[in-house]
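Hypothesis: this fold can be encoded by more than one sequence.
Test: take the structure tokens below, design a sequence, compare later.
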């Protein structure tokens, strides 16, 4: 096409589409294949070892006679609080768990699907401390918790609000779950997790969800989850198994996650730790199915290495990457949605160590085929700290990964035939109609990367990525607009919280 003909098509400004709106899906549909590390022989070895652990060593359920009774009725061998299983028995008990399930959000357009090709990102969970560039490291508060719900609400790359985004230590231990669930329901509209630190707190979390969604609706729909950690090695205490019971009987979601540091809560070799983690996760899933067959569960994994000189957890290591990939295969063989981490790091700052460990840990979860990437934003200091700047940088990376998981688009318009014809040979493509109609969506745009010239960067104040993230989270909170909630429902939630708090003294342990 000649230059004269190109001019007839209108100036570049006239040819740029007017719409700047962008659609953000409620979760990711993976179009990039997972990585299978092990062959059939390797997988069988790990499954056989998990069966050996469960038959010869067993698991303990401390202080929970109801769980022990269920396992005995199901055919397990129960001696005191120790439960042992015949080979293959636990795997058979897991068969009623759904391979896919929907989690309904307060805003139905943000409902998500666990399993299949679905991938869900959720921020960090459980940190007692928070940090930012201005105030430094400090204990978390209810206000910090609300801030992280708001930031998650405003971040399109996070699809789930997690649960205990940080511990609000300015509220009593026996009351803070009420503030957390209220914040999730008031300030966000994506799926979320409720309390699990006592069975009664799980009950109250579900009752608050019922105020919003309705008890009848929740009998057949998952709207809230409980994150259940095994007390590795090979123990469930009555707090965790009791909370599991509450969510399972209510037909609500459960994420069953062994918490293992190789060398401390499991043998130091990864193969042994993987087999143990598989055994522990299956037993938790089996218990949920005994309480309510078909209860929606996620097979969880938190398995990493430990610095054997200091005892500190380590992240982003080659051993933990291999473990995640192997466990992903084991979960797929069970046909149960798989949870993995996450932007993990032991670093105390948003420095090179933090980004390297976080990127490696996150990619391990993606290649392992995780459906639920927990701890995807904010994690610092081995999980002790939720960082505001780290949250922003991690969330930005989640956006890049979402684009990657979307795969390579080979549609006709993507091949650019008209652009070749218009530009011809020796001319650039900046002004072609194809470029002007696709430039907004052709490449993922990072909100945090600085791609300006050195001189422009200097003129703009020589900001580091952490400094840019500091400005970003403050700006987002200033721009935050609360999602709409029925005033009557909000009032009912506030009345429920007030009544529960008024009827009990503060407990700080």
């Amino acid at each position: 096409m000649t230059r004269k003909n190109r001019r007839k098509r209108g100036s570049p400004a006239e040819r740029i589409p007017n719409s700047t709106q962008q659609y953000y899906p409620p979760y990711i549909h993976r179009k990039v294949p997972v990585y299978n590390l092990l062959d059939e022989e390797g997988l069988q070895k790990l499954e056989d070892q998990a069966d050996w652990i469960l038959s010869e060593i067993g698991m303990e359920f401390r202080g929970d006679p109801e769980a022990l009774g269920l396992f005995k009725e199901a055919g397990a061998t129960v001696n005191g609080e120790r439960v042992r299983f015949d080979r293959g028995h636990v795997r058979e008990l897991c068969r009623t768990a759904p391979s896919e399930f929907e989690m309904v959000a307060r805003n139905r357009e943000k409902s998500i699907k666990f399993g299949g090709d679905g991938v869900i990102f959720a921020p960090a969970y459980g940190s007692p401390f928070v940090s930012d560039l201005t105030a430094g490291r400090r204990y978390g508060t209810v206000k910090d918790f609300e801030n992280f719900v708001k930031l998650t609400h405003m971040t399109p790359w996070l699809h789930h609000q997690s649960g205990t985004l940080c511990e609000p230590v300015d509220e009593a231990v026996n009351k803070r779950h009420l503030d957390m669930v209220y914040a999730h329901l008031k300030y966000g509209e994506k799926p979320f997790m409720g309390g699990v630190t006592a069975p009664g707190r799980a009950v109250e979390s579900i009752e608050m969800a019922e105020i919003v969604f309705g008890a009848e609706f929740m009998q057949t729909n998952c709207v809230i989850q409980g994150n259940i950690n095994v007390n590795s090695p090979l123990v469930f205490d009555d707090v965790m198994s009791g909370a599991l019971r509450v969510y399972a009987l209510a037909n609500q979601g459960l994420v069953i996650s062994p918490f293992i540091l190789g060398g401390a809560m499991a043998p130091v070799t990864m193969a042994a730790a993987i087999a143990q983690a598989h055994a522990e996760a299956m037993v938790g899933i089996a218990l949920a199915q005994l309480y309510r067959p078909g209860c929606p569960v996620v097979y969880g994994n938190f398995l990493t290495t430990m610095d054997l000189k200091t005892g500190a957890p380590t992240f982003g290591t080659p051993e933990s990457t291999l473990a995640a990939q192997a466990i992903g295969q084991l979960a797929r063989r069970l046909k149960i949605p798989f949870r993995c981490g996450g932007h993990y790091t032991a670093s105390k700052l948003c420095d090179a160590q933090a980004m390297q460990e976080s990127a490696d840990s996150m990619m391990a979860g993606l290649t392992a085929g995780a459906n639920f990437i927990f701890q995807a934003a904010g994690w610092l200091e081995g999980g002790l700290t939720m960082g505001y700047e780290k949250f922003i940088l991690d969330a930005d990376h989640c956006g890049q990964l979402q684009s990657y998981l979307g795969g390579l688009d080979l549609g006709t318009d993507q091949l650019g035939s008209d652009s070749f014809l218009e530009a011809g040979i020796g001319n650039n493509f900046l002004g072609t109609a194809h470029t002007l109609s696709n430039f907004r969506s052709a490449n993922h745009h990072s909100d945090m990367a600085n791609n300006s010239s050195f001189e422009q960067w200097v003129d703009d104040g020589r900001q580091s990525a952490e400094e840019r993230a500091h400005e970003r989270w403050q700006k987002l909170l200033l721009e935050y607009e609360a999602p709409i909630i029925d005033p009557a429902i909000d009032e009912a939630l506030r009345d429920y919280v007030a009544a529960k708090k008024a009827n009990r003294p503060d407990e700080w342990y």
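Residues 94-405 form a domain with the TIM Barrel fold (CATH 3.20.20.480). The longest helix spans residues 270-291.
Hypothesis status: open.
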